[in-house]
Amino acid sequence: MHRLARLSAAERDALVDDFLDSAFGDRDAEPLSRVLHRSMTPGLPDDPTSEQLEAWVELAELAEDPEFRTLMRGLFTGYSAPEAAPPRKDIVVLVAEAVAPLLAAGATTGSAEAAQVVTRITAAYAAVQGKADNAALRESLAAYLSAARDPRLVRYSELLSIINGWNPPEYPSRELDWFLEAMTQTDRA
Known about the structure:
Layout: H1 9-24, H2 31-39, H3 50-64, H4 66-79, H5 91-105, H6 112-129, H7 135-148, H8 151-164, H9 173-188
Helix pairs in contact: 1-2, 1-4, 3-8, 5-6, 5-9, 6-9, 7-9
């Protein structure tokens, strides 16, 4: 049996708390950290199924991965920009909401509609960051969205759902890919 599968409940909690503290800061430091701690915490039941136990081991391995911790911290820092006071929609949600209808309509990433969405989303991101919409800001947005579609983050969400008995998440990877390509084409135009 894997060492992570043999951890006591207290040891599991400590591992998860350490990961979440490294990603989102102390849960008592600010309301956003508290919310993220709650929503990203796995609750392995006392009598887990084999699927839940396997998911726990994989999630715990991710939680111990220093690169994944850095990725999560970067996403949190990017979301919690000091110029904008939460609550607000994350830019990933804004992208998904704006792009989903275009994907459904068959719009291409080089279309006028795509350029309009890129302009609207980058303006929203600039406002949140308190910066001008320029090449540096667009590079920052592209880096943030690329990090947000990292397969490890998507997998963490899937594993969390398995462990907690939630419905599988609908992650907007397709929408993010489409938007990033639209950004590239818009910036070339």
